[in-house]
Structures are given as structure tokens and as C-alpha cells.
């Protein structure tokens, strides 16, 4: 008889893998091309942060004091020398005017769709929804809610 955890692993399609950052075997969801190492995810996060900062036209020296950091310390995030915590990510998103979802999508697009195209389409949809006025969000949510209650389409 399978345990609850074994059933969960199977139901979610998790893969047992090893990562240089973790001493023991771990379970991960697969990406589009296998399971990326944590260091690859960290590198993608660093790249996304650098691109967000560059879009603003600000330098490390400009951004660092807004975070209460020395420019060298901030630079470590963009050079993937220091791991970003979620609190700092939220703070940066406030300062540089990006959605934290953008960084997560850049690091792990496979979390947003089964194919690269599906993930990109969802990213496009999220970007549109983020810019909608509140009344349009309410209307869209009502529409989507009604659509989810429709009976499944049957093939003839």
C-alpha cells in the first residue's frame, strides 16, 4: 500500500533528484528540459533583477541606498553571489516597478504551463490582467467564474 506522501509525489509528477546545494535527495517538478538545478534558477533570478533595474535607467549605486544597502552588496544579487529572499524581492519590485511574478516566471516558466507556448500565453494574460482597471478585473473574474461552471464540452 502506498503512503500518503508516495501518492502525493505520484499525483504531482514529482521527480526524485539531487542538487549540489542539498545534501539529500529531493523531489522537484520537471521543467521543459528536465529539472533545472537551484543554481540555474538563482542565475535566472539575478538576470531578471538586472534587467528590471536596467529598464529604469538606474545604476547599482542608485538602487542600493533605496534598499538600505551598499552598492557592492546590492551588486551581489545581480551577479548571483547572494541569494535573494522573498522580502527583498518584494521590496525591489516596489522600487523598480515590476511584478514579483515576472521574476518567478523568468526563473521557472514551466510552473506556468505544460509547454513553453502555454507558459508564455499565461504570462501575456497575467501582464494584461495586471494593467486592467478594478471594474474590468471584477467583470473578467465574473466571466471566468461563469465559464468554470459550464458543463464540459462533449465530442460528437
CATH topology of the domain at 37-111: 434 Repressor (Amino-terminal Domain)
- The CATH architecture classification of the domain at 37-111 is Orthogonal Bundle
Helix content range = 55-70%
Number of strands: 2
The average pLDDT value, as a whole number, equals: 93
Q: Detail the poorly predicted runs.
A: none
Strand content: under 5%
The major pleated sheet works out as:
2 strands, antiparallel
Taken from the alpha-carbon principal axes, the silhouette is: flat
How many helical elements? 8
Supply the CATH superfamily name of the domain at 37-111: lambda repressor-like DNA-binding domains
Look at the helices and sheets and give the structural class.
mainly alpha
Task: Give, in order, the helices and strands.
Answer: HEEHHHHHHH
| Order of neighbouring strands in the sheet with most strands | 1-2
The oligomeric status of these chains comes to single chain
Round the Cα radius of gyration to an integer and report it: 20 Å
For the termini, the CA-CA separation is 40 Å
The CATH class name of the domain at 37-111 reads Mainly Alpha
Describe this structure in words.
The chain is mainly alpha-helical. Among the domains are: 75 residues, Orthogonal Bundle (434 Repressor (Amino-terminal Domain)); 33 residues, no CATH class. The chain is 60% helix and 4% strand. It contains eight helices and two strands. The longest helix is centred in the first third of the chain and has 19 residues.
Amino acid at each position: 500500500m502506498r503512503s500518503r506522501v508516495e501518492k502525493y509525489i505520484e499525483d504531482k509528477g514529482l521527480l526524485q533528484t539531487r542538487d549540489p546545494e542539498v545534501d539529500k535527495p529531493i523531489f522537484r517538478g520537471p521543467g521543459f528540459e528536465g529539472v533545472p538545478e537551484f543554481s540555474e534558477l538563482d542565475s535566472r533570478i539575478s538576470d531578471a533583477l538586472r534587467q528590471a533595474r536596467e529598464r529604469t535607467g538606474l545604476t547599482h549605486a542608485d538602487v542600493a541606498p533605496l534598499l538600505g544597502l551598499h552598492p557592492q552588496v546590492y551588486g551581489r544579487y545581480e551577479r548571483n553571489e547572494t541569494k535573494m529572499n522573498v522580502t527583498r524581492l518584494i521590496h525591489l519590485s516596489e522600487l523598480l516597478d515590476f511584478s514579483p511574478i515576472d521574476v518567478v516566471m523568468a526563473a521557472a516558466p514551466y510552473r506556468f504551463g505544460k509547454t513553453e507556448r502555454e507558459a508564455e500565453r499565461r504570462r501575456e494574460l497575467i501582464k494584461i490582467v495586471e494593467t486592467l482597471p478594478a471594474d474590468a478585473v471584477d467583470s473578467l473574474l465574473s466571466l471566468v467564474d461563469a465559464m468554470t461552471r459550464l458543463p464540459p464540452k462533449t465530442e460528437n
